[in-house]
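Extended Data, panel c. Modelled sequence:
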Amino acid sequence: MKHCGVDLGKKGGIVILEDGNVIVCMPMPVIKSSKKSDEYDIDRIVDIFLRHLPDYTYIEKSLLLPVSGKKSYQQSGFVEGGFQFMLATLKLRYDVITPKRWQKNIFEGMNKKDTKQASIMFAKRTHPEVSWIAEKSTKYHDGLTDALCIAEYCKRQNQ
C-alpha cells in the first residue's frame, strides 16, 4: 500500500511510503515568482499524485495564529481546499488532520517540546537512507520530515 503525507506550506513537503519504504520525498513544488512570494507548482503536484496514486493521503491542517493576518488565512484555506479538490477529483482517499493528532502518535516517548526537532529525529532514525537535508543547504528540511511523520501516521491508521 502507498501512504502519503503532505505538509502544505510552501516550505512543506510531500512524502509517499510504499510498504513502509520512502518512494517520494520532495519539498513542496513551487515556482519562483517575480511577485512577492513563490507560487505552488500545481502541474507538478498533480503529476506526482497521478504517477504514484497513493492509497491514502493525510494532509496537515493549517493552523494559523490570529496575528498571521487575513491574507495568510485566505492563502491557507485556498491551498488546503485546493488539495482536497485535487484528491477528490482524482478519486483518491484522504483526510485532513491536525498537527497534534499525528504528533501525539508519532512522538510517543520522545521529547515533544520542539516538534520540528522531534520530526527530524524520527526521520533520521526510521529512514537513515534518505537525506533529509534541504537542497543547497546544510540544514534539515523540517517540511520533509513533518511530511514523513504524517505519512507514517497515515500508514499506521490505514493498514
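The two ends are 8 Å apart (CA to CA). This feature is highlighted in the accompanying rendering.
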